[in-house]
Amino acid sequence: MTDLTNKDISHIADLAKLNLNSHEIVKFKKQLSDIIGYVSHLKEVETSNVEPTSQTTNLKDVTRDDAANSQNSLTQDEALSGTEETHNGYFKVSAILEKDK
């Protein structure tokens, strides 16, 4: 088992933007120490004759060509036909951001 300190747990919590109380620090200290201990057991596994691999299922990603379908697209005039105000071929809307005062 790896010996983590309360300071280690607080530092990790700060990195993760977590606010932990003292009870949670003790709880997570044990849990994280156990996890690191389990992972350290992997160092004992003989892997010198194991070929590296990134996946084991031989499944491939199924993809399609990214092509526009003009039959399912609106023209610019059709898209703008339902609005009352346009400017240079775009929808005109009220500002939602303000400059610093």
Automatic annotation (TrEMBL):
UniProt region (Disordered), positions on chain: 46-86
This protein's name: Aspartyl/glutamyl-tRNA(Asn/Gln) amidotransferase subunit C
PANTHER family linked: GLUTAMYL-TRNA(GLN) AMIDOTRANSFERASE SUBUNIT C, MITOCHONDRIAL (PTHR15004:SF0)
Free-text function comment from the UniProt entry: Allows the formation of correctly charged Asn-tRNA(Asn) or Gln-tRNA(Gln) through the transamidation of misacylated Asp-tRNA(Asn) or Glu-tRNA(Gln) in organisms which lack either or both of asparaginyl-tRNA or glutaminyl-tRNA synthetases. The reaction takes place in the presence of glutamine and ATP through an activated phospho-Asp-tRNA(Asn) or phospho-Glu-tRNA(Gln).
Record's compositionally biased regions (Polar residues): 47-60, 68-78
InterPro entries according to UniProt: Asp/Glu-ADT_sf_sub_c, GatC
EC number: 6.3.5.-
Pfam families associated with the record: GatC
Lineage summary: Bacteria, Candidatus Woeseibacteriota
Swiss-Prot/TrEMBL catalytic activity: L-aspartyl-tRNA(Asn) + L-glutamine + ATP + H2O = L-asparaginyl-tRNA(Asn) + L-glutamate + ADP + phosphate + 2 H(+); L-glutamyl-tRNA(Gln) + L-glutamine + ATP + H2O = L-glutaminyl-tRNA(Gln) + L-glutamate + ADP + phosphate + H(+)
Family: Belongs to the GatC family.
Organism: Candidatus Woesebacteria bacterium RBG_16_36_11
GO molecular function: asparaginyl-tRNA synthase (glutamine-hydrolyzing) activity; ATP binding; glutaminyl-tRNA synthase (glutamine-hydrolyzing) activity
GO biological process, any: glutaminyl-tRNAGln biosynthesis via transamidation
Ribosomal protein found in the keyword field: no
HAMAP family attached to this UniProt entry: GatC
UniProt gene name: gatC
